[in-house]
Write a structure and sequence with these properties.
There is one protein chain. The protein has one domain: Nucleoside Triphosphate Pyrophosphohydrolase (Alpha-Beta Complex). With 177 residues, it is α+β, with helices and mostly antiparallel strands.
Length: 177
């Protein structure tokens, strides 16, 4: 199987090239990514626990899904594609915001991403791809916030960085911190 390719960008999201996904993570190259957050009609967040065989952050809880747009693919198309591939869900998604983060990971890898964050609502039950997700759950925002506060190492670094902002961007009430 050929290694997936990612789109390298500058800090203004202008494409600067293409490289292999692992090259981008080994050499801390800024590249495009998408993170998808889906809730159900009760406002419960749909989370996944990353498969144990993932190349980084395996076994950690995170947002509904993540990916890297392929060359020639829009961010929204990538988000929609990956939501179906990982979680078996289709729903309308809207982009909330984007942000840049850099974080050293396990396995001598670095996430250095311009991450486009998408949001959707569905009551569809996930049918997870076991190569991508170990399990899934729904959780209220208040229970999620309490668990991240108590057990931060159970969650991916990017999820911890943005879950409050996602909550605020969707018009929800953020608890006192």
């Amino acid at each position: 199987m050929k290694e997936p390719r990612v789109i390298l960008v500058d800090e203004n999201n202008n494409p600067t090239g293409v490289t292999g996904k692992m090259d981008a993570h080994r050499n801390a190259l800024l590249h495009r990514a998408v993170s998808v957050f889906v809730v159900n009609s009760r406002g419960e967040w749909i989370l996944q626990r990353r498969a144990l065989g993932k190349y980084h952050s395996n076994g950690l809880w995170t947002n509904t899904c993540c990916t890297h747009p392929e060359p020639g693919e829009t961010n929204k198309d990538a988000a929609t594609r990956r939501l179906k591939e990982e979680m078996g869900i289709t729903t309308e998604l809207r982009e909330l915001f984007s942000f840049i983060y850099r974080e050293t990971l396990d396995n001598d890898l670095t996430e250095y991403e311009l991450d486009h964050v998408f949001y959707g609502v569905t009551d569809n039950i996930p049918l997870i791809n076991r190569e991508e997700a170990e399990e899934w759950k729904t959780i209220s925002f208040s229970d999620l916030h309490a668990d991240i506060t108590e057990n931060p190492s159970s969650y991916t670094c990017w999820f911890r960085k943005i879950y409050l902002r996602v909550n605020e961007s969707t018009g929800k009430i953020t608890p006192e911190i």
